[in-house]
Amino acid sequence: MQRSRNRNRRRRRRARRIRRIAMRTLALLLLLAALGCAFYLGRHYLQEYRTRRTNDQLKQLYNGAPAGTAQSEPTAIPEPQASAQVSPVLESASIGWSGSALQGAQMPVAQDEPLPPVQASFQALRAENGDVRAWLQMGDQIDLPVVQRDNSYYLDNDFYGKSSNAGALFLDARNCFWPADQNLIVYGHNMKDGTMFGTLSFFRTLENLQAHPLVQFNTIYEDGQYVPFALFDASMAKGNAAYFDLLRFNFASAEDFGAFVTEARQRSLFSIPVEVGPGDALLTLCTCSYTLEDGRFLIVCRKLRPGESAEDVAALVSQSVPN
Fewest 10 Å CB contacts: which of 135, 218, 280, 306? Predict the structure, then answer.
C-alpha cells in the first residue's frame, strides 16, 4: 500500500514537472513570436518612415530649385543596344554605385540627336543621382522623381541607391528619352503604406479622377501635362484572357496606334471623352494589381496639345461615366 502511494506521488511530481516545462516552453515560444512580430512591425514602420523622409528631402531639392534651364548642356550619350522585350519588371542587370551620387546609367537617346539644356529645376537632383529623368505629380497622392537605369535596380533600391522595399519610380529602360518615344512607361511598386504607386488605385474611383484630372510629368528637358483616357487592370501573362501588350513604345502606323488606344478604351473602368490621335504623345503609369495573374493596374494618358488648357481637359474628364 505504501509503495502504491509512493508511486502515485512520483507520478504526480513527474506530471507537475512536465506541465511546468510545457508552460515555460509555451511562454518562451509566445515571447519569441511577440519579439518577431515587434521586429517585423518595427522594421516595416522604420522603412515607411525612411521612405517618406527621403521623398520629402527630394521634394525640397526639386521645389527649391530655380526656374529656367541650366547654361551648360550635358554630354550626348549614345543609344544602348535594344534588349529583348520581357515582362516589365523582370529585366535585370547589375550596376554599381559609389559615393554620395549614383553612377548615372546611359540615357537612351537617338543617335546624332542634339540634347537640349537640362532644366535648372533638376540640377540639385542630378547632383545626387544622374539617373533622374523626370518628376511625376498626380493629385495630392503622388509627387515623386522618376529615374531610369535597368528594369530591376530600382525595384529594391531607393533614389540614393540604398536598399529599400519601396524602390523608386522608374522609366522603362527601353524607352528612348530624347526625342521621346511615343509611349513612355513609368513603373512603381503598389506599396500598402501608400508610398510610390501605392495610391494609384485612388483613381479607380470616378470622383477622385474627376477631382484630379491631370498628371504633371516634367522631364529634365521640358515640362508636360497629361490627361488620363483609360484606366484598367490587365495581365502580363501571355495566353491569359486579360493579357495586354503593354510594351509598345512606338507604333508602326496610325492604325497600330489606333488599335492600342481602342483596346485601352474598351478595357477602361471609365469612358473618358478625351480625343486621342496618332500625333499624340502617351504616358502609361503601371503598378501591380492582384486581381489577375501577373496583374498590373494601368493608367494611360495623353499629353496636352499646344493651345489646349488644363481647364479644357478637366471639363472633358468631368463628363466621364463608368464603362
Answer: 306
